[in-house]
UniProtKB/TrEMBL annotation:
Matches recorded under InterPro entries: Aminotransferase_I/II_large (IPR004839), Asp_trans (IPR000796), NHTrfase_class1_PyrdxlP-BS (IPR004838), PyrdxlP-dep_Trfase (IPR015424), PyrdxlP-dep_Trfase_major (IPR015421), PyrdxlP-dep_Trfase_small (IPR015422)
Organism: Sinanodonta woodiana (Chinese pond mussel)
Protein name, UniProt field: Aspartate aminotransferase
Cofactor: pyridoxal 5'-phosphate
Keyword presence, ATP-binding: no
Other remarks on this protein: In eukaryotes there are cytoplasmic, mitochondrial and chloroplastic isozymes.
PROSITE patterns per the UniProt record, alphabetical: AA_TRANSFER_CLASS_1 (PS00105)
UniProt-listed Enzyme Commission number(s): 2.6.1.1
PANTHER family: ASPARTATE AMINOTRANSFERASE, GLUTAMATE OXALOACETATE TRANSAMINASE 1, ISOFORM B
Keyword Transferase (UniProt): yes
Gene Ontology biological process terms, A to Z: aspartate metabolic process
Location(s) in or outside the cell: Cytoplasm
Length: 402
């Protein structure tokens, strides 16, 4: 008998299981609202034209080779990434107390931060929103955090933010806990704090001497505006917080399978920055040794070239505009049908996802009867919708609810 016969089969990863189910489904009008990736009006993945341009240049550039990158990643990429996040003339950058470490996607950046906080700073307590991106909990668990808590966030009644609950739950944590925050486009709810609310969150983090980790996986993609989407991170930095921010370029560059992300480290002084960087380099060395070049080269080439950069900004506007259009259309359609309930949260929520408020029975109805695939939590990816499947989906939701 195998010595692994006693290994428990891990539960399936819901979103990947749903995609597999969707792919196997032969129903012609099936709709995939589960996937966490952008889709065009034709329901297709989109390679950004500016990415195509850079790829073509790279294919014939004789100066490029396949040598190892530095452990911390491609210098031009790291510098461009932190600049994008904080703004070129951010005092922290000018004072040379910001570092970027290239990572395998936003996930890799989260993992580096969690490993560092556990291994080097001996943190054991972390708090994150309820609900949150399902991977957050697992990352901290596998990094060995013993006390993983979730704070109130989604108010099912108002379909908005439970700020008081959130602040109270963070206050109840031990001092110097890790506080994981979604900088914009909260996944899965699409509910973001207002600037006034962010100030209160920062107050509590300050009181609790929290280690702040901001997850920013949708910069630019959320509102179409780089600065608006990084407001919360910049606000914390300008207030003097030392923090980590995990940046993903999966969504805003459409580089999902290239695994390109960055861990931004902000400290109070240059020396501490170097100390932290040196420890994180050891974590990188023992995890993936050094990161891949391709995605980093693309992102750096775009962000460091003014013409390509403005082209890219147009692309993120195209994507965020399309998502907002789908929000409007779904809302109007449900209103027209007279579907019971208030549906304006669909237009107020931010980012790619909407937390519809559909319950598990209604979700099951949509999957079984209509072949519309969405997460059990009721989260839908707005860009799984197109003008051609909009009526079908709205009618199905109407049927599920009534
Ligand atoms: N954080 C959040 C909130 C996300 O939604 C995602 C992706 O879905 C990520 C991080 C990680 O993205 P990446 O694919 O770059 O690892």
């Amino acid at each position: 008998a195998s010595r692994f016969a006693d290994v428990d089969v891990a539960p399936p990863i819901e979103v990947f299981a749903l995609i597999a189910q969707y792919n196997e489904d032969t129903f012609p009008n099936k709709v995939n609202l589960s996937v966490g990736a952008y889709r065009t009006e034709e329901g297709k993945p989109w390679v950004l034209p500016v990415v195509r341009t850079v790829e073509a240049q790279m294919a014939t550039d004789p100066t490029l080779n396949h040598e190892y990158l530095p452990v911390a990643g491609l210098p031009d990429f790291r510098a461009a990434a932190v600049k994008l996040l904080l703004g070129e003339d951010n005092p922290a950058l000018v004072e040379n107390r910001v570092e970027g470490i290239q990572a395998l996607g936003g996930t890799g950046a989260l993992r580096l931060a969690a490993d560092f906080l556990k291994i080097v700073k001996k943190c054991d307590n972390v708090i994150m929103s309820s609900p949150t991106w399902e991977n957050h909990r697992m990352i901290f668990k596998n990094c060995g955090f013993g006390n993983i808590k979730q704070h109130r966030y989604w108010n099912a009644e108002t379909k908005g933010l439970d700020l008081d609950g959130m602040l109270e739950d963070i206050k109840a944590m031990p001092d110097e806990s890790v506080v994981l925050l979604h900088a914009c486009a909260h996944n899965p709810t699409g509910v973001d704090p207002t600037q006034e609310q962010w100030k209160k969150i920062a107050d509590v983090c300050e009181q609790k001497k929290a280690y702040v980790l901001m997850d920013i996986a949708y910069q630019g993609f959320t509102s179409g505006d780089i600065e608006k989407d990084s407001w919360a991170v910049r606000y914390f930095v300008n207030r003097g917080f030392e923090l980590f921010a995990s940046q993903s370029f999966s969504k805003n560059f459409g580089l999902y399978n290239e695994r390109i992300g960055n861990l931004c480290i902000v400290t109070k002084d240059t020396e501490s920055k170097m100390r932290v960087k040196s420890q994180i380099e050891i974590i990188v060395r023992t995890t993936w040794s050094n990161p891949p070049n391709y995605g980093a080269r693309i992102v750096a080439s775009v962000l460091n070239n003014p013409a390509l950069y403005s082209e890219w900004k147009e692309h993120i506007k195209t994507m965020s505009d399309r998502i907002r259009l789908m929000r409007d259309q779904l809302f109007q359609k449900l209103k027209m049908l007279g579907t019971p309930g208030k549906w304006d949260h669909i237009i107020h929520q931010q980012g790619m996802f909407s937390y519809t408020g559909l319950n598990p029975t209604q979700v099951e109805h949509l999957v079984k009867k209509y072949h519309i695939y969405l997460l059990k939590s009721g989260r839908i990816n707005m860009c799984g919708l197109t003008t051609s499947n909009m009526d079908y989906v709205a009618n199905a939701i109407h049927d599920a609810v009534t």
